[in-house]
């Protein structure tokens, strides 16, 4: 039975309440299942065939005024039955007439039911031609969708979840370590002079009051204090080249200055999973008479982001030997830089 005949049969039997739409299919109780977009045999006077979804919506809302029906159909994004087709289509579906000029005889086809059974339809109209694509689409039913594939047995996404979780944990660990390094440096920088230079004595001067204290066999490091009161202000800055082919970079400068150990840049980049630090805090211990002083420095490789007050805190520079390294620096030329700052150029022997 074709879709239009099935709808007429249910309308005459007053069983339109059993005609429901589920997804892209229209169910006729437990008897028939058709795609909602399948074309029926009723051709409008404009020349196109009405789809089953359009005809079902029309017959269920026939009691509405035509203007109200059109507005509702548009709100549901459905094509509407035109006014000239309204009366003859209604009379055919309700059984007032047995036929209509707009009805085209279709080749019988098998339709799959929602319970998996197949209903054989009548074989009338074998001498008529019908679009092959329409016949194929009338028989098609989706077997699997994306959700069904994800729920298939034997598929395990646990490894993907574990890999994603590990990457996120590693990123958080690196960020936490960077925050910890910065916090340690700030906690140790309390009350040095503007250049960050201080001695671990009790008074405010360079070692003043140290002679009044008893000598300790194992002197403990004393924390430096900033007189300015702002945390981080006055921390000395060391600049390194931003190029990765230099010996000393932002990646390996910490081990080099603190422990005197050189680690190639490519090894450090691999260990850090490509994470590039914006600033590295280097801590160094100095012996001043009977006291040990913990000194901290900021190491940066992006001079373009520095402010004028930051340049006043630059105490040393690692140079690459290339002129482009000093571009946008607040100095006339490299000679002035070498005269005003401690400059180091390294090479591998």
In short:
The protein has eleven helices and 13 strands. By secondary structure, the chain is α/β, with parallel strands linked by helices.
Structural class: alpha/beta
CATH architecture of the largest domain: 3-Layer(aba) Sandwich
Low-confidence stretches: 107-128, 190-232
CATH topology of the largest domain: Rossmann fold
The largest pleated sheet is described as: 6 strands, mixed
What is the CA-CA span between the terminal residues? 92 Å
Strand/helix succession: HEEEEEHHHEEHHHEEHHEEHEHE
User: What value does the Rg take, in angstroms?
Assistant: 42 Å
Helix content: 25-40%
Give the rounded overall mean pLDDT. 73
Tally of domains: 2
- Morphology call: rod-shaped
Count of helical regions: 11
- Percent of residues in beta strands: 15-25%
Given this structure, which CATH class of the largest domain is correct?
Alpha Beta
Instruction: Give the strand tally.
Output: 13
């Amino acid at each position: 039975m074709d879709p239009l005949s099935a709808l007429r049969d249910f309308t005459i039997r007053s069983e339109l309440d059993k005609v429901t739409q589920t997804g892209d299919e229209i169910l006729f109780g437990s008897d028939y299942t058709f795609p909602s977009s399948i074309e029926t045999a009723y051709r409008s006077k404009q020349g196109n065939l009405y789809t089953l979804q359009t005809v079902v919506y029309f017959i269920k809302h026939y009691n509405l005024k035509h203007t109200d029906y059109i507005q509702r159909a548009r709100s549901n994004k459905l094509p509407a039955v035109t006014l000239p087709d309204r009366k003859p289509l209604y009379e055919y579906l309700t059984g007032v007439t047995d036929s209509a000029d707009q009805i085209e005889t279709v080749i019988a086809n098998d339709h799959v039911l929602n319970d998996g059974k197949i209903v054989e339809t009548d074989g009338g109209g074998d001498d008529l031609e019908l679009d092959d694509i329409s016949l194929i689409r009338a028989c098609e039913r989706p077997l699997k969708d994306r959700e069904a594939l994800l729920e298939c047995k034997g598929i395990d996404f646990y490894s993907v979840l574990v890999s994603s979780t590990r990457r996120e944990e590693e990123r958080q660990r690196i960020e936490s370590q960077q925050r910890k390094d910065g916090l340690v440096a700030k906690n140790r920088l309390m009350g040095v002079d503007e250049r960050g230079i201080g001695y671990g004595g009790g008074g405010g001067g360079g070692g003043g009051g140290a002679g009044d204290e008893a000598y300790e066999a194992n002197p403990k490091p004393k924390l430096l204090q900033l007189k300015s009161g702002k945390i981080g202000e006055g921390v000395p800055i060391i600049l390194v080249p931003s190029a990765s082919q230099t010996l000393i970079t932002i990646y390996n400068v910490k081990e080099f200055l603190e422990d005197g150990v050189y680690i190639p840049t490519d090894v450090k980049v691999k260990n850090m999973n490509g994470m590039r630090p914006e600033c590295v805090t280097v801590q160094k211990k100095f012996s001043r008479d009977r006291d040990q002083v913990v000194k901290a420095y900021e190491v940066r490789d992006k001079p373009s982001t520095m402010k004028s007050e930051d340049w006043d805190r630059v105490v040393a520079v690692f140079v690459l030997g290339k002129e482009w390294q000093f571009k946008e620096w607040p100095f006339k030329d490299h000679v002035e830089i070498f005269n005003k700052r401690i400059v180091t150029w390294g090479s591998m022997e």
